[in-house]
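Feature request, filed as a ticket because there's no other form

It would be nice if the structure record came with a short human-readable summary line next to the tokens. Right now we just get the raw output. Example of a typical job, pasted below so the devs can see what we mean:
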Amino acid sequence: MIDSIQPLRPLKDLSSHALAQLEAMLEQPSWKNGGRLPPEAELARQFGVSRPVLRKALTQMREVGRIISRRGSANFVQPKADLLAGASDPQSLSIQTVYDMKRLVRFRQVIECAAAEDAARRCDPEAIADIEAAYDLMQTLSPGGTVFEADFAFHLSIAQAAGNSYFVFALKTIRDQIRLTIDFTRKLQDRPSDQVVPRVVSEHLEVLEAIKTGDPERARSAMDFHMKQTIIRLLEEG
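Raw output as currently delivered:
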């Protein structure tokens, strides 16, 4: 009877087993855009391993940038997507980790602060009316509408108000990357795609008011603050 007892699987094999299952799970289409992983206890039970073994697999996934931890215990899957089509270097603008998102926001900070400044300097009434319309859309989303669509329309209208087609071209080029970043940030915060965040709306209002008053310095400062807050919301940096 004793001879029939199977030896326990070595810890190394268990870790490899858990890692393989975790990798397979994250390759499923439902995880393409990231999201919150189930609690560790639930995952360990699902994979048939202990929590210490599961944590080793999670650590390995963090090391390759596939998973990040938030608030001490929650684990989040980072998006794995190649969003750039037709470029000479597809990897250069792909969003694969949260740090790619941070670099994207940093790029936006450079061009959008300049766009806001120029829009305020021009202070074109028709262009400002378009910005106001986009701002109003953000507060009164239509059924089926998303915060991303309203947010992008607001920023694009500022780029158009700047009177420089390169600002418009740059934003349109990275539209999908912006969408992925906004969607992922909202998943981290457990917010649905159509839920408006008051503090974000107030940041947009400050940019709008600065442009309406024709104050380039204030417009640049307001947009700079908004972009910095975007990074904070993404990474929870102080």
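Something like this underneath would help us a lot:
The beta strands are 35-36, 67-70, 74-77.
The domain at 9-77 is CATH 1.10.10.10 (Arc Repressor Mutant, subunit A).
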